[in-house]
């Protein structure tokens, strides 16, 4: 996958919590092409927790409905520790807990803009 040096996500480490393989790979491509230093797709809340316990990340892309259940508990943990995240969902979100939401299917620019918005709001908090 081609990384764009100096892209809008330059240097960021991104955790992608998504159980649909093709969507996860596409999200990985998008963030890497936008300059992310690293992008790790995981397919479950447990895998995300293990990753976060061993590796720091700058931002998380979080699908709310995963094969192993709802990711609401993980979202609460991310909020509690101040880790920025974007909710990527195919479901209409009635409340977002002040999170940036990008609706699936999303365009490359929509996902990148959502990440930039959540990073900006975290810096301004």
Q: What is the makeup of the main sheet?
A: 5 strands, parallel
Helix content: 25-40%
CA-atom Rg in angstroms: 13 Å
Number of strands: 7
Mean pLDDT, rounded to whole units? 91
Question: Strand order, biggest sheet?
Answer: 2-1-3-6-7
Low-confidence stretches: none
Query: End-to-end distance, in Å?
Result: 33 Å
User: How many helical elements?
Assistant: 4
Q: H/E order of the elements?
A: EHEHEEEHEEH
Please sum up the structure shown.
With 125 residues, the chain is an alpha/beta fold. It has four helices and seven strands; from the N terminus they run βαβαβββαββα. The protein has a five-stranded parallel beta sheet with strand order 2-1-3-6-7, with helices on both faces.
What keyword list fits this structure?
globular, 39% helix, two-stranded antiparallel sheet, alpha/beta, 4 helices, 5-stranded parallel β-sheet
Layout of SSEs?
Elements: E1 13-17, H1 21-33, E2 38-42, H2 45-54, E3 59-62, E4 65-66, E5 69-70, H3 72-81, E6 85-89, E7 100-103, H4 108-123
Parallel strand pairs: 1-2, 1-3, 3-6, 6-7
Antiparallel strand pairs: 4-5
Care to describe what's here?
The protein is 39% helix and 22% strand. The chain is built from four helices and seven strands; from the N terminus they run βαβαβββαββα. The strands form two sheets. It has a five-stranded parallel β-sheet with strand order 2-1-3-6-7, sandwiched between helices. A two-stranded antiparallel ribbon has the order 4-5. The longest helix has 16 residues, at 108-123. It is globular and about 35 Å long. It starts with 12 loop residues before the first strand and ends with a helix. The mean pLDDT is 91.
